[in-house]
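Private note to self, pasted from the team thread so I don't lose it. C-alpha cells:
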C-alpha cells in the first residue's frame, strides 16, 4: 500500500483533494500504533501525519499547548513536565494491549478521544481539547476553536472531531488546555473486597468532597488478591487531610495501605493501559462503559454466559473485559449485558477476521445512524477517509 506523508497542511490538502477526485480510499494514521483497532478497512493508500511534528505553541502561564498532529505524545509530556505541567486526562497508551511499536501521536489522542483513570476528575481528552486544524474529505483546510476556553454558538467542530477516528478529517494540529502537576500523589489500597463491596466503597469516595483522581478495582479469582485503589493528588497537606478523612468515611479502609512513589505510579500506569489484561495476547479485549453501580451486575452477566476476566476503572463506570476469541469473541454476551444494564461496548483487540464480522463499536439506533451518515457525507462526500473504520459502509 502506498504511504503518503504530507509535509504540511497544504500538502495534505493537495493529497486529499486528488484522492477525492480519483476516488482513492485513504487510511489515516499517525505512527500506526493503533492500526489494529477498529474495523479493518480496505483502502488504496495510507496518509500519515508522522512528518507533521513539533510543538507550535506553548504558553505555560496560559496553561495551553498546541502541537502538530504527528508530534509524539512523549514529546508533549516531556515539554509540559519541564514546566511542572501535564495533560490532565492522562492519555492511555494502547501499545501493551496491541503489542505495537513506535510512538503514539498527539493527533491520535484527539481523534480517538483517548483518556485514562483521571477522567473521573478532569474529564476526557475532548474536554481539554480547545482547538483543531484539519483537512476534510473535500481537501479543504479547516480551523476550529482557539487557544482559550469559551462558549461557542453553532457546530462545535472541536468536539465533533474528537472521537471521530479520522472518518471526518485529517488532523494537522491540536490545542489542549493543561494543568499543573500535583505536588503529591497517594493511593489508598484495600485488599480482599469482592466486586460489589469495592464498587460501593469507590462510589462513596467519589461522592465525597475529597477530589478523587483515580478509583479502580482489580478482582482476583480467590478474592484475597483483589485490590481496591483510591488515588488522591494535590498539595501535601491537602492530601494528608483527605487521606485521613477517607479512612474514616470508608468501612474497612481504616487499615488500608498507602502507596506512593514509583510503585504507585507503575500500578496506575497498569490500570491506565489495561496491562492487567494484556498478558494473554490470544484473548479479545472489550472496553465497556456503564453506570458505575451497574458495573458488577454487567460483569456478572457476562461471566455467566462466557469465560471472562475483568477489572474496573472510573469507580466501576469502565469495565475492561477479556474474552476468548472463539466464535464472536463474546460479542453476543457483552451486547446483551449493555442492553440489560445500560452502556456501550467497544472491541479493542481481536483478530481482523472477527473485527470484520462483529460490531466493533456499539450499534447505533436508526435515527442516530442516519445523523451519523449525514455528518459523514457533509465532511467527506466521496467517502474516502477511513471508510468502514467505525461502521460498515460508512
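Design output:
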Amino acid at each position: 500500500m502506498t504511504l503518503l506523508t504530507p509535509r504540511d497542511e497544504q500538502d495534505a490538502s493537495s493529497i486529499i483533494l486528488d484522492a477525492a477526485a480519483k476516488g482513492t480510499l485513504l487510511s489515516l494514521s499517525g505512527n500506526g500504533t493503533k492500526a489494529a483497532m477498529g474495523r479493518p478497512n480496505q483502502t488504496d493508500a495510507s496518509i500519515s501525519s508522522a512528518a507533521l511534528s513539533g510543538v507550535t505553541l506553548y504558553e505555560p502561564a496560559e496553561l495551553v499547548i498546541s502541537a502538530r498532529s504527528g508530534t509524539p505524545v512523549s514529546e508533549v509530556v516531556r515539554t509540559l513536565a519541564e514546566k511542572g505541567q501535564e495533560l490532565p486526562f492522562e492519555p492511555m497508551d494502547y501499545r501493551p494491549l496491541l503489542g505495537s511499536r513506535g510512538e503514539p501521536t498527539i493527533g491520535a489522542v484527539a481523534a480517538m478521544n483517548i483518556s485514562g483513570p483521571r477522567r473521573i476528575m478532569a474529564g476526557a481528552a475532548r474536554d481539554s481539547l480547545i482547538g483543531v486544524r484539519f483537512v476534510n474529505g473535500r481537501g479543504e483546510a479547516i480551523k476550529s476553536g482557539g487557544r482559550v476556553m469559551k462558549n461557542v454558538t453553532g457546530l462545535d467542530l472541536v468536539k465533533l472531531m474528537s472521537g471521530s477516528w479520522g472518518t471526518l478529517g485529517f488532523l494537522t494540529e491540536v490545542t489542549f488546555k493543561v494543568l499543573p502537576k500535583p505536588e503529591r500523589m497517594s493511593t489508598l489500597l484495600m485488599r480482599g473486597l469482592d466486586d460489589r463491596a469495592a464498587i460501593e466503597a469507590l462510589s462513596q469516595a467519589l461522592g465525597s468532597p475529597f477530589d478523587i483522581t483515580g478509583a479502580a478495582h482489580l478482582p482476583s479469582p480467590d478474592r484475597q488478591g483483589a485490590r481496591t485503589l483510591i488515588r488522591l493528588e494535590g498539595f501535601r497537606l491537602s492530601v494528608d487531610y483527605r487521606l485521613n478523612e477517607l479512612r474514616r468515611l470508608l468501612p474497612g479502609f481504616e487499615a488500608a495501605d498507602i502507596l506512593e512513589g514509583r510503585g504507585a505510579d507503575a500500578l496506575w500506569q497498569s490500570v491506565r493501559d489495561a496491562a492487567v489484561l494484556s498478558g494473554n495476547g490470544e484473548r479479545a479485549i472489550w472496553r465497556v462503559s456503564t453506570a458505575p453501580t451497574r458495573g458488577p451486575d454487567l460483569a456478572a452477566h457476562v461471566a455467566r454466559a462466557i469465560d471472562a476476566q475483568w477489572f474496573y476503572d472510573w469507580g466501576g463506570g469502565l469495565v475492561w473485559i477479556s474474552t476468548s476469541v472463539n466464535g464472536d469473541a463474546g460479542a453476543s454476551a457483552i451486547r446483551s449485558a449493555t442492553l440489560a444494564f445500560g452502556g456501550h461496548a467497544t472491541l479493542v483487540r481481536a483478530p481482523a477476521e472477527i473485527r470484520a464480522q462483529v460490531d466493533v463499536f456499539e450499534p447505533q439506533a436508526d435515527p442516530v445512524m442516519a445523523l451519523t451518515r449525514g455528518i459523514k457525507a457533509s465532511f467527506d462526500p466521496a467517502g474516502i477517509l477511513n471508510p468502514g473504520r467505525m461502521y460498515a459502509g460508512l
